[in-house]
Model the fold of this input.
Amino acid sequence: MMLEIRNLHKAFGSLEVLKGIDVNLEKGKVLAIIGPSGSGKTTLLRCINLLEMPDQGTMKLSDRELDFQPGRKISSREVTELRKHTGMVFQSYNLFPHKNVMDNIMEGPVVVQKKDKAQAFKTAQALLEKVGLGDRGSYYPHQLSGGQQQRVGIARAMAMEPDVLLFDEPTSALDPELVGEVLRVIKQLALEGRTMVIVTHEMKFAADVADHVILMDGGHIIEQGPPDQVINHPQSARAQQFMNRISGEDI
Amino acid sequence: MNDRQIQIVLDSFWPLFEAALKYTLPLAISSFAIGLLLAVLTALAQISGVRILKFIARVYVWIIRGTPLLVQLFIIFYGLPTIGIILPAFVAALIGFSLSVGAYGSEIVRSAIQSVPKGQWEAAYSIGMTRGQALRRVILPQAARVSVPPLANSFIGLVKDTSLASSITYIELFYKSQQVVARTYEALILYAEAAVIYLIFTSVLFVLQSYLEKRLGRSLSS
Done:
């Protein structure tokens, strides 16, 4: 298993957002997390790289295991160590506006991983080619379209050579005509066998790239399995209701 | 103006201008540099999670902002000698103005840091940065750009405020003009001349300020 989450709990004040989540993800597989807004899916994703600190439960990423208990603080060294092995792509890109595309991508490898600059540059250039932006290295984020910025965001996350890539609704902030170019890049990564967790509203895309789909509602996983089963043949009434509403929106 | 007055203006112009160059500006520049460092440290203390640092920073800003600069200068220059601390006028002025810039500047720096979107912290953390790395590499460079226009205003204000140092015997532009008045009894003409010289320096700074803002505006447009 690349990622193993057991009985994960998270509350914001008195609001319980995750009420005991279990996730298993094998190396090279793609997990899609879907569900209505407020279901806890983004919080779950943010717990994986500790942008949110879980209150309770265990998480194992590759060979690093973390045990969360109320009142027990995970050391900041453990936190950064885990983050070095995860990559995150944000809904609103969050590129560094004061750095050009190349420096955005090289920042992690050079500053955090202390890699050789020339080597990091080569890797970054290769990643830019991969996301179709080989000629945009010297551009600043504000000179790029949303779709291009998000592809840079993907390259930045990949530059850390993470064990798992996390996507937080990567196309939600994009104009409809720019969604395709980003999804194509993500799909390409899936075909290459990257381990990924994707929170998304794009059902067709989830059905297309995911090996496993989790449907969340009210802080629980209410349905999970292969995409065809969860998306097209959901078992529970609540899941059917959600899927009907989503497919209604598609029309 | 009669011939004598014109002669006084001409004779005093260079000594006054020189006093501004040699004493007013160096005091303003050096206390701004030290003050800026203090401002950043104070702002960092205020946003840090460390309660004692927060408390010290808050008390410092409270005292400096809540008391007149002139009174602070008098305490440092005329007050401290009674407990054995005797400082030259320049050092006393430097301390007073640096503390002032540090306190007011910390508010500017703090709000600039807080104006950087939360997503920037998260992006920095997501690539494994520590809090310090995120601050240095991602947050402060962006905050610096935001704080340039208000800090430029502080500096221009500081150049004018250095005239207060005349009251603790620091011989800068204004003190110099007072000396000439004492000799010639031409208060209106000499103080107006001093005002014009301040205006020359601040006008240059206004031009620099708008140039800086335009450059920053270009690189920030998104």
